[in-house]
Amino acid sequence: MTFELSGDLTMETLLEHYPGARRALFSAFHIGGCQSCAYQPEQTLTEVCHHHRIDLAEALTCLADSRDHDQRMLISPSELQSLLQGGASLILLDTRTREEFEAISLPGAELMTHEVQTALFADKEMATKKIILIDHQGRSVLDHCAWFRGHGLGETYGLEGGIDRFAREVDPSIPRYRIELD
Known about the structure:
- It is a single chain.
- 45% of the residues lie in helices and 10% in strands.
- The mean pLDDT is 91.
- The chain is globular, with a radius of gyration of 18 Å.
- It folds into two domains: 61 residues, no CATH class; 96 residues, Oxidized Rhodanese, domain 1 (3-Layer(aba) Sandwich), CATH 3.40.250.
- Strands 1-5-4-2-3 form a five-stranded parallel β-sheet.
- Helix 2 packs across helix 4.
- By secondary structure, it is α/β, with parallel strands linked by helices.
Protein backbone atom coordinates (compact mmCIF):
# COMPACT_ATOMS: atom_id res chain seq x y z
CA MET A 1 0.00 0.00 0.00
CA THR A 2 1.61 3.26 -1.17
CA PHE A 3 0.86 6.48 0.62
CA GLU A 4 2.03 9.76 -0.91
CA LEU A 5 3.33 12.34 1.56
CA SER A 6 2.39 15.91 0.68
CA GLY A 7 1.76 19.25 2.32
CA ASP A 8 -1.92 19.07 1.37
CA LEU A 9 -2.61 16.21 3.76
CA THR A 10 -4.54 17.02 6.88
CA MET A 11 -2.81 15.97 10.06
CA GLU A 12 -5.66 13.53 10.70
CA THR A 13 -5.11 11.82 7.33
CA LEU A 14 -1.32 11.85 7.75
CA LEU A 15 -1.53 10.19 11.17
CA GLU A 16 -4.17 7.71 10.02
CA HIS A 17 -1.95 6.42 7.22
CA TYR A 18 1.35 6.96 8.96
CA PRO A 19 1.13 6.72 12.77
CA GLY A 20 4.90 7.22 13.10
CA ALA A 21 4.54 10.79 11.80
CA ARG A 22 3.64 12.06 15.27
CA ARG A 23 6.91 10.72 16.70
CA ALA A 24 8.95 11.96 13.73
CA LEU A 25 7.56 15.51 13.80
CA PHE A 26 7.98 15.82 17.53
CA SER A 27 11.51 14.44 17.51
CA ALA A 28 12.75 16.62 14.66
CA PHE A 29 10.76 19.83 15.12
CA HIS A 30 9.02 19.70 18.51
CA ILE A 31 5.60 19.68 16.85
CA GLY A 32 2.60 18.02 18.47
CA GLY A 33 3.93 17.06 21.87
CA CYS A 34 2.43 19.71 24.10
CA GLN A 35 -0.11 22.53 24.15
CA SER A 36 2.32 25.14 22.81
CA CYS A 37 3.25 23.06 19.77
CA ALA A 38 -0.08 21.35 19.14
CA TYR A 39 -2.02 21.23 15.88
CA GLN A 40 -5.61 20.53 14.94
CA PRO A 41 -6.59 17.38 13.01
CA GLU A 42 -8.06 19.43 10.14
CA GLN A 43 -4.89 21.52 9.62
CA THR A 44 -2.75 20.59 6.63
CA LEU A 45 0.91 19.76 7.01
CA THR A 46 1.66 22.96 5.08
CA GLU A 47 -0.34 25.02 7.58
CA VAL A 48 1.36 23.36 10.55
CA CYS A 49 4.82 23.94 9.05
CA HIS A 50 4.00 27.57 8.28
CA HIS A 51 2.71 28.14 11.82
CA HIS A 52 5.88 26.66 13.35
CA ARG A 53 8.24 28.28 10.79
CA ILE A 54 9.46 24.97 9.43
CA ASP A 55 10.41 24.39 5.81
CA LEU A 56 7.82 22.06 4.27
CA ALA A 57 10.41 20.27 2.13
CA GLU A 58 12.50 19.59 5.23
CA ALA A 59 9.44 18.24 7.06
CA LEU A 60 8.53 15.99 4.10
CA THR A 61 12.10 14.66 3.94
CA CYS A 62 12.05 13.99 7.67
CA LEU A 63 8.72 12.15 7.38
CA ALA A 64 9.90 10.06 4.41
CA ASP A 65 13.16 9.11 6.15
CA SER A 66 11.30 8.25 9.34
CA ARG A 67 8.73 6.20 7.41
CA ASP A 68 11.54 4.18 5.79
CA HIS A 69 13.16 3.61 9.20
CA ASP A 70 9.81 2.56 10.69
CA GLN A 71 9.14 0.12 7.83
CA ARG A 72 12.30 -1.75 8.80
CA MET A 73 10.82 -2.28 12.29
CA LEU A 74 7.67 -3.96 10.94
CA ILE A 75 6.89 -7.52 10.02
CA SER A 76 3.95 -8.40 7.79
CA PRO A 77 1.29 -10.86 8.90
CA SER A 78 2.43 -13.36 6.25
CA GLU A 79 6.06 -13.06 7.42
CA LEU A 80 4.97 -13.73 11.00
CA GLN A 81 2.93 -16.73 9.86
CA SER A 82 5.99 -18.12 8.05
CA LEU A 83 8.12 -17.71 11.17
CA LEU A 84 5.48 -19.41 13.32
CA GLN A 85 5.03 -22.29 10.88
CA GLY A 86 8.80 -22.67 10.59
CA GLY A 87 9.16 -23.04 14.35
CA ALA A 88 11.29 -19.91 14.73
CA SER A 89 12.38 -19.05 18.23
CA LEU A 90 10.65 -15.79 19.04
CA ILE A 91 8.68 -13.98 21.71
CA LEU A 92 5.18 -12.78 20.87
CA LEU A 93 4.17 -9.88 23.11
CA ASP A 94 0.67 -8.45 22.97
CA THR A 95 0.58 -4.75 23.88
CA ARG A 96 -3.21 -4.42 23.96
CA THR A 97 -5.28 -4.22 27.11
CA ARG A 98 -5.77 -7.26 29.31
CA GLU A 99 -9.44 -7.38 28.28
CA GLU A 100 -8.59 -7.41 24.57
CA PHE A 101 -5.88 -10.01 25.08
CA GLU A 102 -8.14 -12.30 27.11
CA ALA A 103 -10.91 -12.03 24.52
CA ILE A 104 -8.74 -12.60 21.43
CA SER A 105 -5.05 -13.43 21.12
CA LEU A 106 -2.60 -15.27 18.92
CA PRO A 107 -1.51 -18.71 20.11
CA GLY A 108 1.74 -18.43 22.06
CA ALA A 109 1.40 -14.71 22.68
CA GLU A 110 1.98 -13.25 26.12
CA LEU A 111 0.38 -10.11 27.48
CA MET A 112 2.95 -7.36 27.90
CA THR A 113 2.81 -6.32 31.52
CA HIS A 114 5.18 -4.05 33.38
CA GLU A 115 6.77 -7.12 34.97
CA VAL A 116 7.32 -8.84 31.61
CA GLN A 117 8.80 -5.69 30.09
CA THR A 118 11.13 -5.15 33.07
CA ALA A 119 12.34 -8.76 32.91
CA LEU A 120 13.05 -8.49 29.17
CA PHE A 121 14.95 -5.22 29.57
CA ALA A 122 17.05 -6.70 32.39
CA ASP A 123 17.97 -9.93 30.57
CA LYS A 124 21.11 -9.33 28.49
CA GLU A 125 20.46 -12.50 26.47
CA MET A 126 17.31 -10.89 25.05
CA ALA A 127 19.40 -8.43 22.99
CA THR A 128 19.53 -10.89 20.09
CA LYS A 129 16.18 -12.62 20.62
CA LYS A 130 13.48 -11.88 18.04
CA ILE A 131 10.53 -10.16 19.72
CA ILE A 132 7.29 -9.48 17.86
CA LEU A 133 4.97 -6.87 19.35
CA ILE A 134 1.25 -7.01 18.58
CA ASP A 135 -1.36 -4.30 18.99
CA HIS A 136 -4.89 -3.98 17.61
CA GLN A 137 -4.39 -2.23 14.25
CA GLY A 138 -0.71 -1.31 14.12
CA ARG A 139 -1.19 2.26 15.31
CA SER A 140 0.95 2.17 18.45
CA VAL A 141 3.27 -0.73 17.78
CA LEU A 142 6.04 1.44 16.29
CA ASP A 143 6.28 3.49 19.46
CA HIS A 144 6.62 0.28 21.45
CA CYS A 145 9.26 -1.04 19.03
CA ALA A 146 11.28 2.14 19.35
CA TRP A 147 11.04 1.89 23.15
CA PHE A 148 12.24 -1.74 23.14
CA ARG A 149 15.05 -1.07 20.67
CA GLY A 150 16.10 1.94 22.71
CA HIS A 151 16.53 -0.45 25.64
CA GLY A 152 18.90 -2.70 23.71
CA LEU A 153 16.41 -5.17 22.23
CA GLY A 154 17.45 -4.59 18.62
CA GLU A 155 15.54 -7.54 17.17
CA THR A 156 12.14 -6.16 18.15
CA TYR A 157 9.54 -5.87 15.38
CA GLY A 158 5.93 -4.80 15.26
CA LEU A 159 3.17 -6.71 13.52
CA GLU A 160 2.13 -4.46 10.65
CA GLY A 161 -1.59 -3.77 10.87
CA GLY A 162 -1.82 -5.56 14.23
CA ILE A 163 -3.94 -8.55 15.08
CA ASP A 164 -6.73 -7.11 12.93
CA ARG A 165 -4.70 -7.37 9.73
CA PHE A 166 -3.40 -10.80 10.78
CA ALA A 167 -7.03 -11.94 11.09
CA ARG A 168 -7.93 -10.50 7.67
CA GLU A 169 -4.93 -11.80 5.75
CA VAL A 170 -3.71 -14.92 7.51
CA ASP A 171 -6.18 -16.44 9.96
CA PRO A 172 -9.86 -15.55 9.43
CA SER A 173 -10.79 -17.75 12.42
CA ILE A 174 -9.52 -14.94 14.68
CA PRO A 175 -12.48 -12.69 15.50
CA ARG A 176 -12.17 -9.05 14.48
CA TYR A 177 -13.46 -6.21 16.63
CA ARG A 178 -13.77 -2.44 16.91
CA ILE A 179 -13.16 -0.34 19.95
CA GLU A 180 -15.84 2.24 20.58
CA LEU A 181 -15.11 5.10 22.92
CA ASP A 182 -17.88 6.94 24.73
